[in-house]
Amino acid sequence: MPVNPRINETTVQVLSSLYEHSRSFASDHGREIEAINNSNSVEVAEFLTRVLAEDAARAARCQHLLEQVFSGEDDFLSGLAESSTQETQTPTVSGDADANLLRP
Length: 104
Known about the structure:
Keywords: Plasmid. It is a single chain. By secondary structure, the protein is mainly α. About 70% of the residues lie in helices and about 0% in strands. The longest helix has 30 residues, at about 40-70. The radius of gyration is 17 Å and the shape is elongated.
């Protein structure tokens, strides 16, 4: 049960689920992505490398937010807003403009 009374159990469940998904993506698909990176599909390799980095950052942010929930820190909601702002700022892929079509 969250220590912070402003945070409900549904919030914790969603953050936990997102954390698990983000954390497990690389371990579930790491070998396939490594094979793509070693192929001559540069645009796909760049895209997948960026996805892995974003998932790692998302998992770390979720973990930090969950730690705040259970420690009762008051800046959880501001941290959540900061996190969602960072995730919407997707960098562009250098190189071929068609690579930008691969963006989620």
